[in-house]
Amino acid sequence: MTARDTSRPAIRIAMLGAGTVGSSVAKLLALHGHDLAHRVGASLELVAVGVRDVSKERPGIDSKIITDDLEAVATSGADIVIELMGGIEPARSLILQAMESGSSVVTANKALLAAEGASLYAAAEEFGVDLYFEASVAGAIPLIRPLRESLAGDKVTKVMGIVNGTTNFMLTKMDEEGVEYADVFEEARELGYLEADPSLDVDGHDAAAKAAILAQLAFHTRVTLSDVYCEGISSVTAADIQAARAMGFVVKLLAIAEIVQGQAGEDAIVVRVHPSMIPLTHPLANVRGSFNAVFVTAEAAGEMMFYGRGAGGDPTASAVLGDVVAAARNRVLGGRGPGESIYSGLKVLDIGKASTRYYVNLDVRDRPGVLAQIAQAFAENGVSIQVVRQEGHGDEAGLIVRTHSGTEEALSATVNSLRKMDSVREVLGVMRVEGDQ
Ligand code: NAP
Question: Which of 73, 82, 85 to mutate to test the pocket of ligand 1 (most atoms within 8 A of CB)?
Answer without folding.
Answer: 85
